[in-house]
Design brief:
Elements (H helix, E strand, L loop, with lengths): L4 H15 L14 H11 L11 H15 L6 H19 L2 H17 L7 H19 L2 H17 L4 H22 L2 H17 L6 H4 L1 H29 L10 H13 L5 H16 L6 H22 L2 H17 L7 H19 L2 H14 L10 H19 L2 H16 L9 H17 L3 H17 L7 H19 L7
Helix pairs in contact: 1-2, 1-3, 3-4, 4-5, 4-6, 5-6, 6-7, 7-8, 8-9, 8-11, 9-11, 11-12, 11-13, 11-14, 13-14, 14-15, 14-16, 15-16, 16-17, 16-18, 17-18, 18-19, 18-20, 19-20, 20-21, 20-22, 21-22
Length: 503
């Protein structure tokens, strides 16, 4: 059975009107009379008597759906399926109806089955299928959509020949999908492969710094930054586990560090944190220079570059890095609307950068601005999209620094409350627990010195001992925890007259 000319022609003219570009019609579909065209034009520009007609997009989908049913035996049926799937995908992105996403996926998959392995439409069909699967994953959170999308792109890269520019686009999408799956499943293999895929995509792009050819550049920077942070996290976790398992022995100061590094390299190949961070910053800076970069991609690049520069400042203390980071976060906040879900992350990122800048500039204005941004990030409307552990930990650290600078005990009480709440959100085996533990130990003993009381001394001792268990021997803040713990033990001895605590 063949498609009726009227139904098909109306659908195709609607598609052309929606896309504002001509649609290539196979020869067998080109036989249509003037009456069909007139009917289609009347539907596109309805008179007052047709004012109750559905929107053009809904009409096009309706007619293409009918054409899909009528041309089941037609060898060019996949053209109809592709256009139906594209319009369904567009309506899903506009209206968020999951049935449209499901139907679009089904139509694209059916189209791929009908096409020959070397068909010219196979590559764009697979790419569009992967894109709608990613969109459905973002909406529904089913990781199976990522598995299917990655499988289709892997297959198309093996079976289809495509020019370098097209291959670079496919590799960029594949790298993004692998990165999304890593964030969901936390598989080191996905992160390593995402970096390799994006590196290949970058090698295929030209030197014009156009967003159409260089979009993989900032994506690679994001992936490298994630691996750098995973390296640091795994290294710290390995040290903590090694210390808890008595791997550390006197005279072998670096033994636990080497053990952790071996664990990380097994999972993340021969990755090096320093080189990953350096490369991440370079690619992210190149990404900002792309002409016509998509606003969403630019915002992600600004955020990640700010994070990367703060991370490098922590390692090298180069003031220019943290000053550049502050500028990037400020630009990001000027760009993002007030209700954007990524805005609280940007606020916390700017606060972290300002807090870091205070350590070298000693300007209390940095702390005031950081406190203001953190309070905004912690407002109820941002709760769903905020990493409260990081926000509260940074808030506590900032309040503690303000107390040290101003000697205002109000800041000290607020710091203790914020740090205690932050600590309650960390699991006992979380290596990121160390920062709020250290700050809380210092805050409690500072409050104890101003108003001696047993609960603060007991809590400072407990938190200080736990912090020492997690803290490597050469940690920069270890002396603060040791001195605070010593002061807490002495204070409790003097308060309770229990000499055994001096042991």
């Amino acid at each position: 059975m063949h498609t009726t000319p009227a139904t098909l022609r109306i659908a195709l003219i609607l598609v052309t009107q929606l896309n504002r570009s001509p649609f290539t019609i196979p020869k067998m579909m080109s036989d249509v009379g003037a009456l069909n065209c007139a009917v289609a034009i009347r539907i596109l520009r309805p008179s007052s008597t047709l004012a109750d007609q559905p929107p053009e997009l809904d009409l096009a989908i309706r007619y293409l759906w009918s054409a899909r049913v009528l041309c089941r035996r037609d060898p060019n049926r996949f053209y109809i399926l592709n256009h139906l799937a594209r319009l369904l995908a567009r309506r899903f992105l506009d209206e968020g109806t999951t049935e449209d996403a499901d139907d679009a996926v089904q139509a694209f998959e059916e189209s791929l089955i009908l096409q020959s392995a070397d068909g010219p439409e196979r590559l764009p069909t697979a790419v569009q299928l992967a894109s709608i699967l990613r969109a459905r994953f973002d909406a529904m959170g089913h990781v199976e959509d990522l598995h299917v999308a990655i499988r289709h792109l892997d297959d198309i890269l093996v079976t289809s020949e495509c020019p370098s520019s097209c291959k670079a686009e496919v590799l960029e999408i594949l790298g993004t999908l692998l990165l999304a799956r890593f964030r969901t499943a936390n598989s080191p293999n996905d992160l390593n492969r995402a970096i390799h895929v994006l590196q290949e995509a970058c090698s295929l792009t030209d030197n014009s710094l156009s967003s159409s050819t260089g979009v993989a550049i900032p994506k690679l920077g994001v992936a490298l930054l994630i691996r750098c942070k995973e390296h640091t996290r795994k290294d710290l976790q390995g040290m903590v586990d090694a210390r808890r398992n008595d791997v550390f022995l006197p005279g072998y100061e670096n033994r636990y560090s080497k053990a952790a590094n071996t664990i990380f390299k097994t999972e993340y190949e021969e990755a090096d944190s320093e080189s990953d961070l350096k490369s991440a910053i370079r690619y992210l800076q190149l990404g900002l220079g792309l002409w016509g970069l998509d606003p969403t991609a630019r915002c992600e690049t600004l955020e990640c570059l700010g994070d990367a520069l703060v991370e490098r400042f922590k390692r090298t203390s180069q003031v220019v890095d943290v000053e550049d980071a502050i500028g990037h976060f400020q630009e990001l906040l000027e760009t993002l609307p007030s209700d954007d879900p990524s805005r609280p992350r940007a606020l916390v990122g700017l606060a972290v950068a300002l807090r870091s800048h205070f350590r070298v500039a000693k300007d209390v204005t940095d702390l005031d601005y950081a406190l203001q941004h953190l309070k905004t990030a912690l407002l109820p409307q941002y709760t769903e999209h905020l990493d409260r552990k990081l926000a509260l930990g940074t808030l506590g650290s900032t309040l503690l620094a303000l107390f040290t600078k101003t000697n205002d005990t109000t800041y000290l009480d607020q710091a203790v409350s914020a740090l205690q709440e932050a600590l309650s959100l960390h699991s006992t085996d979380d290596p990121d627990r160390l920062a709020p533990l250290s700050d809380l130990t210092v805050a409690l003993i500072s409050r104890f010195h101003r108003a001696p009381n047993l609960p603060d001394a007991d809590a400072a001792i407990a938190y200080g001992q736990e912090a020492l268990e997690l803290m490597p021997i050469g940690h920069a803040d270890r002396y603060l925890v040791l001195s605070s713990l010593s002061a807490a033990l002495q204070g409790r001895y003097e308060l309770c007259a229990r000499p055994t605590y001096l042991n």
